[in-house]
Amino acid sequence: MTNETGGDERDRGAEDDRVDEHDHGDARDAPDAPDHDAAQAHDGGLELSHVDRHGGVRMVDVGEKAETRRRAVAEARVWIGPAAATAVERNQVAKGNVLEVARIAGIQGAKRTSELIPLCHPLPLDHVGVECRLDGEEITILAEASVFGRTGVEMEAMTAATVAALTVYDMLKAVEKRIEIRAVRLLEKSGGRSGTFRRES
User: Fold this and answer.
1) Residue numbers annotated as active site
2) Lowest mean pLDDT: which of 40-49, 72-81, 136-145?
């Protein structure tokens, strides 16, 4: 995976991805302390951390949460068809190198996540990496984000993968009109209260 840094694009080196803490807070996680304003679902009392007891939406207060190392990896797959795949393989797309432009777009997208998703916290990302590869008639995108902070980076990784996939579409729409973004999903996350998640193959 290619390494890029969030704020100033400088590579701060490999981070220790091992974590002893649990889940990712933020828009994706209930606060560490019980939140009596959080709405509770009727099936099992599941708290929705972005909904108050009156049904209004809100940004979660993570000020009292402990800072931990948090990491997330997301994937997107884009079917582009045989003609576009050949053009990408031969680097014959009029707009330029599709895989490299999509990679840079994904990194930029991760850094703008809080501007796109209303209740996400702005994060000082330590690392963003995006890898784009041609697999037959598909382009597979892997996006990784990490931060030492009070809230998780699942949305940053997912946004990076999604923006990279949309960029692939933009770069190739003149070649193939039937392009499909077929999957955007979280593959793994670590850090915070709920521990490590890894999607089974």
Assistant:
1) 170
2) 40-49
